[in-house]
Structures are given as C-alpha cells and as structure tokens.
C-alpha cells in the first residue's frame, strides 16, 4: 500500500487522542460511528447541488469528518474491546456507500457532462471491482491487504485532494481530469489484483 506507513501513523495518533480524552466524547458503540460516517456523506450531495464556494468547502469538511469517523470506529472498537463480526460487516459495507457518494459529489461539481459521466461510471466500477476482488480473494485464502496501486485510503485522499484543488483554483477541468485519473487508477488496481489472484490460484 502506497500510504500504509501514513495510515499506521494516523492510527497511532488516533489511539493517543482516544487515550487522552477523545474517547470521553465519542460513543462507545463503534457501529454508531460507522453510521455517522455514512450520514455525513449522505448530506454532501445537497450542498454540492447549491454550486456555491462555501458549500464546496462544507462538502470537503464533511467528507473529511466521514473519513475520520470511519477510522475512529475501528479504534473505538479495539479500545473498548467491542470488535465484532457485525461491526466489520457494517464498516466494509457502508464504506462502499461513502465511496460512491464521494465520487458522485465530484461528478455533480462537474455538472454531469457526458464524458464526466463515463469517467464516473468507470471510477465506480473500478472501486467496486477493487473491493470485490479483495473480498473474493480472501474468501479463497489469498491475502490482498496492501496489494494494488490505489486502495480505499488512497482513493479517498485523492478525491479530497481533487476537491480541495478545485476549491482553491475554481477550475472545473480539475474535477474532469480528476475523475479520469480515478477511473484509470481504480481499474488498474482491480486488474492488478485479478492478475495476482489468478497467478496465485493457478499454481
């Protein structure tokens, strides 16, 4: 994983924050944080639809919060010893909704052009196939963690960076080419995983 070390460092910071008092203001049920992450994402398309600069800034903030809650749910689960199979299922399932909404947000900023729509659909396809390839491979006993050019963490960070760059520049081409980049990178990752699994299982 390209950002594996950064993710580990962020998780250490999160654990330290929990131990120093953040845990007192967060719900002890990690599933509540997972649902809060989805709720944060669900309200963003409305603000994108407003097509106002302050609304785009708010969308960026909400998506950052959604990502933070997604990280904290696992930390809270381990901190309180409340990790469960249900929590793991909800986390990975609701993550797919958040991913979809974040991509649609970019598309809405770009006013849904024909090519932009094609790039959006390809990015969604690549994202879903990347996740499905890992889930199916690991069900067959092939480890996929850290395998691939751009995993979910990198994908979300890239989406946030694209939105931030657009807010700073107000150049719509940033969104257009950002969707193209996501479409290419996600599908390369999916194909990469398919090839690795095929080689592993074919031995």
Automatic annotation (TrEMBL):
Example GO biological process: phospholipid biosynthetic process
PROSITE patterns (alphabetical): CDP_ALCOHOL_P_TRANSF (PS00379)
Gene3D superfamilies reported for this sequence: 1.20.120.1760
Superkingdom in the source lineage: Archaea
Ranges that cross the membrane: 54-76, 114-135, 156-185
GO molecular function annotations of the record: phosphotransferase activity, for other substituted phosphate groups
A Gene Ontology cellular-component term: membrane
Stored Pfam families: CDP-OH_P_transf (PF01066)
Family: Belongs to the CDP-alcohol phosphatidyltransferase class-I family.
Protein known as: CDP-alcohol phosphatidyltransferase
Species for this entry: Vulcanisaeta souniana JCM 11219
